[in-house]
Amino acid sequence: MVSSCKDDFLEEEPTQRLSPEQIAKAAEKDPSLLNGSIAGLYATMYKTGTGGTTNHDDYGQKGYDVYSDMLVSDVALAGTNYGWYTGVVRYQSTKDFTSNPAYQPWRYYYRLVLGANTVIDALGGTDEEQTVPQNRYTMGQAKAIRAYAYFYLAQFYSAGYGDGTEKILPIYKDTKSPNQPKSTTAEVYDFIIADLTQAVAYLDGFNRASKDQINQQVAKGLLVYALSARGTTADLNQVVKLTDEIISTGGFKLLEKNEVVAQLDPATGRVLNPQSGFNNVASSSWMWGVDLTLAINLDLISWWGQMDVFTYSYAWAGDPKTIDKGLYNAIRADDVRKGQFDPENGGIEKFYEEDGYAEGDLDLMPVNKFFDPARVIGGQRNVTTDYVYMRLEEMYLLNAEAKARLGQDGAAKDMLKQLLAKRVTNAGYVDALSGQALLNEIYLQTRIELWGEGKAYLAMKRLKKTVTRGSNHLFEAGKSFAYDADELTFPIPQAEVLNNPVLSQ
Which keywords accompany this UniProt record (predicted)? Predict the structure, then answer.
């Protein structure tokens, strides 16, 4: 009887979390079971604690968008009452491999790699050809997520694509591999691009249920970023082709002027154009994002809980985040996007005097770009305003950038002007630009258009730019840092150094 109990009730594998082997066995009988694993990967992108800590800056992809915007200095931390991000903006975390900001992205992105590899292994492994449509869609999403994770690891933990021989990251192609040494930049990018190329092929015909899922257009967008970062002539020509396809056939639309910035009733401060706010995944330009609902249960520990003064947030309570003053001053007076930020010469504070706000309190904060629609200072407790990961405007800018890098100035200007026609009164000034001046303008417009969305750091790395902090930064104001400076790249964290004995072989 004792033997029978042992056989019946003591299992060799725990049931609390399915092993890759258990998942593979179950998927052989019902491949649709892998949909749950894919959904879990998407949830990891916005769940708290996915970087391995309980910190209030540990909430998935948007948390690392804030890291990158602060490293590139386009987002300035204007208060340190609570201390979040202080190590990042002081460039301490990028020099200290024991710091949490160095550890959290590493843990988060490799967690995604492990989850993606679990799905890939269940479908037969990286090299297994998929012929069943559902399996192709599942494999395509898994490979896209794995590539996305490795791409961001390559951004945060290396100085950019050099000659390809720099050893930067370990590559794990399955769940069974032992500890791996660092691979070269060329090997990492070859792996990323191979994954995304196959993802684009496998996701042909996939009709996603919601925008948090990666479809073929999003996979193309991720491939565009990887090719732009590597930046060979062949890569840039492929960037032009892919972005042209996304723009012409993706079904997305550029945001109009009245969607880009809140227009306020001068008497009451009420928003007259509720379609503004960068808070709704249904936006016609959003290619990839997530519809945050009450069921997801996000609150203070979230992107909105760090950035939005109209949310119960650190931005409201004493750690405001503002646009770099130099970047703000570079926005043309006829550019509607200048109105996304509260001006220094008197802004919306008059509408919140009863809440204790005086002139200057909201200076240069993104009060008219990102906001909870109710616009109650410190109001939104349970976050239902949405997250954006990718939008169509990025494809216009990357298309223009690639053409400029290829020496196709005329075509680059035409593409840039299509975007600027919806942002400035007269985009004709672009006609006089060429060569490096044109590329500089595209880079500037990338920083302006995508402020607060985590994309300027990527542009800085691929274009090998120098960061110069404006006068409104609390630390290192006025100082400049080259793209390959230690200050702008995280070190591989202590946990990996200690636990991976072959890391540097």
Answer: Cell outer membrane, Membrane, Signal
- Phi and psi torsions of 188, nearest 5°: -65, -45
Residue 305 lies in a domain: no
**pLDDT tens digit sequence for 107-149:** 999 999 999 999 999 999 999 999 999 999 999 999 999 999 9
Determine whether 464 is exposed, middle or buried from the number of CB atoms within 10 Å of its CB (0-12, 13-18, 19+): middle
Please name the residues in contact with 207: beta carbons below 8 A apart, sequence gap of 6 or more: 215
Instruction: State the alpha helices, DSSP H only, in 435-474.
Output: 435-449, 456-463
Is 0.85 surpassed by the pTM of this model? Answer: yes
Q: Which residues of 199-210 are buried (b: 16+ CB within 10 A; e: fewer)?
A: bbebbeebebee
Total structural domains in the chain? Answer: 1
Q: Domain range spanning residue 177?
A: 20-254
AA letter at 21: E
pLDDT digits (tens, 9 = 90+) for 244-297: 999 999 999 999 999 999 999 999 999 999 999 999 999 999 999 999 999 999
Residue 414 lies in a domain: no
Asked if the structure places residue 85 within a domain, the reply is yes
Which of 242, 275, 244 is CA-nearest to residue 257? 275
* Residues whose CB is less than 8 angstroms from the CB of residue 499 and which lie 6 or more positions away in sequence, other chains included: 179
Helix axes 392-405, 435-449, angle to 10 degrees: 170
- The dihedrals phi and psi of 170, each to the nearest 5 degrees, come to -75, 145
- Which spans in 203-283 are helix H? 216-230, 233-249, 257-260
